[in-house]
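Bench log, entry 3. Co-assembly request; chain sequences pasted below exactly as received.
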Amino acid sequence: MMHLTRHPLSIADLLAEVQSSERGGTCVFLGTVRNDADITSIDYSAYEAMADEEIERILAETHERWPEGRVTLQHRLGLIPAGDASIAIAAAAPHREQAFASCRYVIEEVKKRLPIWKKELHADGTATWVDPSGQPVVEGLRDR
Amino acid sequence: MAKVSVRFFARYAELAGCDWSAITVSTPATVNDVIARVREVFPGTQAIPSRPLAALNHRHVKLDASVNEGDEVALLPPFSGG
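Structure output for the full assembly:
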């Protein structure tokens, strides 16, 4: 499974990668585009080669920390409408504590380390780059 | 002299006016030296913070990391994925 995709995310595909009869706890995290401030969609872009490698590093670290568990993720790129998921993480482990902890570890590392950026598109046709604190950094006309 | 590829993304690509360039720097050189040269060649990038996030060959690095012929340096705006 590709970790970066331009298509809607499939939770079923993620679950199929991590679930097994030995793993009794499964946790799914979805990050979804909110419709704050008349946002109609968000355009996600990435340094794809690096993001792919960084995801592999994060998942390898997760496996070292929770060797009995399995975790995977997909991040969607391109134009994503409000209400659709931009990231999905599935974590399965023998017990729920490891499943929750490993899922939490992955989303926190993704936020800190993945070279991915979002540009919010508003109903009035303007577009805004977003910084990690959620504050707009540049405003301009929608470029697509 | 070393020729390196420089990649720009998101807002930084808008400031640079391109998303890729080849830059030549005197050796020995660091990521910081590459950034200094970028600021000369692409005046719009002077709006980039003085110490931006950077990657070297797809890995996060500090700005004093050494660069060599053929390396790929990326200047990275603050991340907002997830």
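The radius of gyration of chain B is 12 Å. Residues 31-41 of chain B form the longest helix (11 residues).
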